[in-house]
Automatic annotation (TrEMBL):
Database matches in PANTHER family: CONTACTIN 5 (PTHR45080), MAM DOMAIN-CONTAINING GLYCOSYLPHOSPHATIDYLINOSITOL ANCHOR 2 (PTHR45080:SF35)
Coiled-coil ranges per UniProt: none
InterPro entries: Cell_Adh-Cytoskel_Orgn, Ig-like_dom, Ig-like_dom_sf, Ig-like_fold, Ig_I-set, Ig_sub, Ig_sub2
Name the record gives this protein: MAM domain containing glycosylphosphatidylinositol anchor 2
Length: 216
């Protein structure tokens, strides 16, 4: 009688995955975004799912295996998206990326001296400072330009254009008019744009005169 030795062996491994996308992904509103996630290890083969920080995936999103497609993306759909792989061996694997949707939002301006609150009209011979602030996404793409009566304005000895340190006052540009003259009266326009393009510029008009009184 022969003796038989039975050897039962099995190989299991926890999942590992890779995202074939950049982080972050900066896109324009209305653009279709595809996120691709692939298995790079795991036995049995892991199952891939997608989750987002917005509690649930957008209603219009399409999941096909490890690919998540977001058609005509909106600002509300920006956020962190994560691919999760699970095969009940060890801990699930998770890889995430952030989708940033370009936007130019609310803008405001203020004048120093402030004729609206101090009852102090703009005066000849004084320095006048116009500050313009715009909320932008992503903030590092924000650029400003200035116009006077519709024509491009460049920084000079009497017209000093600066951009405030983002850590102190994000999204802010200043136009200092030194020694105000009658010829400086007019409409000044602060124009905000994003380097990536794809969305309309945002502009604010400020009227400077001896009786400055209105934002157009």
């Amino acid at each position: 009688m022969k003796n038989h030795t039975w050897c039962l062996s099995s190989f299991v491994a926890s999942p590992s995955i890779k995202l074939l996308v950049e982080d972050p992904i900066v896109v324009n509103p209305g653009q279709t975004v595809s996120l691709v996630c692939i298995n790079t290890g795991g036995e049995p083969p892991p199952i891939l799912t997608w989750v987002s920080t917005n509690d649930s995936l957008p209603q219009r999103s399409v999941v096909n295996g490890g690919t998540l497609t977001l058609p005509s993306i909106t600002s509300d759909e920006a956020g962190i998206y994560s691919c999760v792989a699970s095969n009940n061996v060890g801990n699930p694997a998770k890889k995430s990326t952030t989708i940033v949707v370009r936007a130019l939002n609310r803008g405001r301006f203020w004048i120093t001296p402030d004729p609206y609150h101090n009852d102090d009209n703009i005066q000849i011979g004084r320095e006048v400072k116009i500050s313009c602030q715009v909320e932008a996404t992503p903030p590092e793409e924000l650029t400003f330009s200035w116009l006077k009566n519709g024509r491009a304005l460049r920084s000079s000895e009497r017209m000093v254009i600066t951009q405030t340190d983002p850590d102190i006052s994000p999204g802010t540009t200043n136009l200092d008019i030194i020694d105000l003259k009658f010829t400086d009266f007019g409409t000044y326009t602060c124009v905000a744009a994003l380097k990536g393009g794809g969305i309309p510029d945002f502009s604010i008009d400020v009227n400077i005169s001896s009786t400055t009184d209105k934002l157009r």
